[in-house]
Structures are given as C-alpha cells and as structure tokens.
Amino acid sequence: MAQTSQEYGEWPLQRLMTEVVGSGPKSADDMSRAQAREAFQRILDGEPDRTTLGAFWLANRWKRNNPEELGAYVDVMAEESTVVAEPDADPVDCGANYDGKGRSALLGVAAGVVAAGAGTPVVVHSGDRVPTQKQDAYKHVLDELGVRTEIDPDESADMVDETGFGFYYQPAFNPRIDELAERREMMGVRTFVNTIETLANPANADVHLGSFYHLAFAKKVVETFQESEHVSPGKVIMFQGMEGYDDIRPGYTKVAEWAAGDDEDSFEDYEIETPEYGMDFEEEDLYVDDVQADSADITETVVAGERDDQFADAVALNAAFRIYARDDVDSLDDGLDAAREAIEDGSAAAVLEDLRAF
C-alpha cells in the first residue's frame, strides 16, 4: 500500500462536476483515466467538501461509470488502501456485494467450505454492516458459526493455507475504503465504491467469481479488470445471483466466463437450467427468516450431510461453480460430483472444524 497522496493535479471534484460529469445522465461526459485517479485520491484523502463529494458520487451513479474510470478507481484503491496478503494456495476470489442480503439464505460460506473440502481453496471478503443496505454478509454468518473474522490480512492468508477457506476483513485489508462508511451511509444510495470494493482481490487470486443482475455488468467487470494496472485476475466467472450476491439464482440463469488468452481475450455467455443440476425449485424456496442465524444453521447441517433439501442442492451447485471456476474439474457436472463427495466423505465438515479451531 502506497503513502497517502499529498499533491493533486488540476481537477478538484467541484471542477469535475461543473465541466465533466455533473450536467445530467444524458449530457455528462466521461472522465479521463487521470481525472478519475485524481478524484479518488482526493476522496480517500478526505479533501473534498462533503456536499461536493455527495454530488460527485451521485453524478457518477446517474451517468454510469465506464470501465476506464472504474479501472482507475480500482488502481487507486490498490495503491493507497488495499493490503494484499497472498497465501501459498491460489484460491478462487469470491466478490459478493458487501452490503449483504436480507431475504434469502447466504450460501457462499457453505459453498466455499464444501469446495475447500473438495480441494479447491476459496477466499471471501466483506465488512461489517456496509452501507447502503447494511445487511448480513460473509462476516456475520462466519461469526454465527464461531469462526474468527476480525483478523489481519496475514492471518487471513494463513487461514486459507491451513483450512482451504479464508476470510479477509475489510477494515483490516482495505482500511481507507472502510473509513468512507459514514459518508456512504449518508448518501442513501449505492456508489461506485460498492462496485470496486468487491474487486479488491486481497489474496491476489487468479480467479474471480461474482454475480450480476444484467449481463452487461459482467462485461463491465471484465473490462474493468482489463483496464486495471494492479488487479487483473486471469479468469472471471459470473452468474445471475440472488440479491446481488454470489449465490446462483434458481431456474433459467445466465453465466459469463472470461479468460485472458495469449493472443486475444475471450468473453462468452451462456444459459443453464439449474434443475438440470439438482436445483429444481424457486428462489422463494431459499428465503429465510433470519439471514445470519439461519444461514449459519444451513451451513453447519449441509456440510455435515444432515440435510437433503433445497438448501443442500443449492449449496452443492454453488460449490460446483467454485470448483469449476478454478479449472479443478472439466465441467459443472464433475464439480457437482466433487462437491457431493466432499460432503459425503466428511471432508467439508473437517474444513468447518478447522476454521473454528483456527
């Protein structure tokens, strides 16, 4: 992590609002990479007036940031905030929305533990009640399970190597983003920070797994990584998730894959029907009353092989995606077999036991 910026160029946020981004959704211009970098450096340094900062965030929201701008923001975050602690293992980085879920079970902990039991290391990361929704995220399910979460990045890396599953805590590995929480909450709407924090990649993983509502967002994430000089995984796999989280949506679902090639980069999308992989039910069937407590209970009982219901089927397919994303299997079907075997032979339960003991 570099030192805090002390000098700026000629583009304070107020000037950017007046001359570039502030004229409205249809007439606003995009910033140059240099302008976007300077803007976020100023924001992280706490330089802008609070009113101007709010206006700038809102203007970015209505005009919609392009990949060049987002790549610039990601690079400033990498240079001036993110603390990378790379484990010896090369895990799958799961970048779910930090502001959490409020209706459906959070399945990523169980899926990650099952994938780890099958031999695929997995990393997740979140904060604690991050704006705007401030709902349940990875941290809260892990807390409920008795897993330590408020740890420094080096401990997170050790957790990956010792158990196969690792949690990185935003205040520890991305402190200057965490310091923006109060201003983000006062905005009342999401900002570009909600997007870039999910791309921080604190374990420097070569594979990023995420979700989208619309396919265009998956394409934008890939292009953002391509624009970034510091955060550039070699493979991205994303699917339509529930509540913006990395839990695959039941039914007809789009999947996007990208891999950096030697000659040219590839981006492909396709559709799957989740009933063909055991998820033959509706999204509402995964709703719970208490996301934190119920998701922890689902995690514990699924990995122990004590459930044979919609939650067990959903965890298995989500684990299969993580195993497949890292190329540890050749197909989702093979990933599903590996996930179910990890549950049946006790490997998944052993990972959860190791996490609790860490």
From TrEMBL:
GO terms for biological process: L-tryptophan biosynthetic process. Keywords: Amino-acid biosynthesis, Aromatic amino acid biosynthesis, Glycosyltransferase, Transferase, Tryptophan biosynthesis. Residues 109-348 form the Glycosyl transferase family domain. Residues 29-79 form the Glycosyl transferase family 3 N-terminal domain. The keyword Transferase applies. GO terms for molecular function: anthranilate phosphoribosyltransferase activity. It holds the Pfam family Glycos_transf_3. This is Anthranilate phosphoribosyltransferase.
